[in-house]
């Protein structure tokens, strides 16, 4: 009877362990699908901890090795191992500098205690709470911290590296793409005459002009990535002393443009005011103003993502947008239409600033020339992006 109870208990424990293990695998599978880099980062942390743990076996703890100071290498890995290479390098350098400064301070106090003589030295050392064998302790502590930092840097840079600079560049390009889709969505939603069938189709779609909201919330992320990217070495097309601060400048301009788009959306979608009414000419001018700005932003995003120069001439784009703006100034005949037109003109100004800033980035970062500009005439390439008005 007792054996049956024991067997059933063991069977229950086995089934429970099996279900828990299956649940862990399902959770890991879900995380791998959502963001594979999180799983890779976990693997990298495990590799770094394994490397520093080998100190226990290479040089025995209780003999002529690092002693209990080996644990500081493990703690260093836990403290400084970050998601990206730049963040790991930054925290690693801070850790080493702090350890060196702390050791230097201890050596300074030890030297000062010797200068006080035989009577003052024990009192000063006791007051400073310093142990015997100070030089050996500091050497072991600094050595183990250096080993931990070196292990983290090697694993972070050579095992599936995650570069903060690449994330920053793709984030800036994504924000510009979101602004472009917002402008194109606004132009299609409010400046195009839709029949009943088109209106029904539009109701089923998600609003594409809501992308500006994520742009407004990404400023802190851009600043953090730029700070981490400054610590990273050159890799791929990214050269040493890459102009990371210029990405922040473009990010600030995109936030300003997103604020204008948000204001325009609120004006056009205001429930307290009558719907926007305009004739065919006014509708065409505003449609061209928003759609051409969106097309220019899409090309700028592609330029940043591929690290190539824009596929259009900046001066030609500016002249074309100014001609559309001049026609837009003649449009307003109601307060709501005048407000929408004024905001669109401000958006065009922001687009011109973003275009100029991307051009400066292309020069400073030595972007490769766009293939369309190499193979075709510059005036023909400009006509691909900017439409002339009849």
From TrEMBL:
This is Aluminum-activated malate transporter 2. InterPro entries: ALMT. The chain crosses the membrane at residues 39-58, 70-89, 145-164. Belongs to the aromatic acid exporter (TC 2.A.85) family. It holds the Pfam family ALMT. It comes from the Eukaryota. Its main location: membrane. GO terms for cellular component: membrane.
